[in-house]
Design a protein that fits this description.
Largest sheet: 7 strands, mixed
Strand order of the largest sheet: 10-9-8-11-12-13-14
Radius of gyration: 20 Å
Strand content: 25-35%
Low-confidence stretches: none
Shape: globular
Distance between the termini: 28 Å
Helix content: 25-40%
Order of helices and strands: EHEEEHEHEEHHEHEEEHEHEEH
Number of helices: 9
Length: 321
Amino acid sequence: MPRGNVLKIISGNAHPEFARKICDYLGVPLADVKTFKFSDGETGVRFGESVRGADVFIVQPTCTPANERIMNLLIIADAVKRASAHYVNAVIPYFGYARQDRKAKPREPITAKLVANLLTHGGVGRVITADLHTGQLQGFFDIPVDHLTAMNLFADYFKEFLADELKAGKVVVVSPDAGGVARARKFAMKLDVEIAIVDKRRSHDVANESKVIDIVGNIEGRTAILVDDIIDTAGTICHAADGLMERGCERVFACATHAVLSGNAMENIEKSAIERLIFSDTIPLTEEQKNDKVLQLSIAPAFAEAIKRVHSEEPISMMFE
């Protein structure tokens, strides 16, 4: 069955601005869908237009409050499916619960798989997301998953912002932990620079706490770019930045796709050696999170291009060639 002729972009309640940027890129209006709360706190949605026969894309990062965002997405997907849309696609710039992808201790859930199942059984036929915590998460879904990345966006930024340092061979890309080495290596290849790795020890008793033990790689007198997928409390990235400066780096920058920024993250960032921290806009920043150290670049055009290609049945792989 061919995809529906009419393209509809629907925004959930998490990031309407992101959905509007996608619509501006594609030259289509945002669908008339409103989210509301019943008096007992239950979520409801109301459609102001038909989606019958349409190729529908629901834009909804499942950021904090994650449970509310997921329910909003599922309710919209159910409504769209029951309204006879041809295809129901979930555009999830940030996929919440992605870090709960295995049993680290006995009797723990694998919540990432549970959420994947909920989306599939809730009527979603395809997912478009960015920089999952681990690429293997795509296998948790029994439907197609298009996995975009913000690394190209960051690479273009640093090629211009650090042009002189790159030309002089003074830049090094740094992974804040061993688990991010593959990501750092791919990013380093885009900038044609070397990589280094922060050897850290994470506390098994307290979440989001770690200590820098050593740095593997040549960082002396260089400008370091720390690269990660998610920054939550910012403890790991800030400790890594301070460790790099203590061991001879001249400047430290950082970039990460998803600005979760919970707890005392902004305080940690302000006190750290990080000169500038670059995020994509998969998660909206609050007013308190906007300051001179934090810069947000939009990945919405990449999502819009992916949506256009899915809708027209063109290969998304062409975007990365």
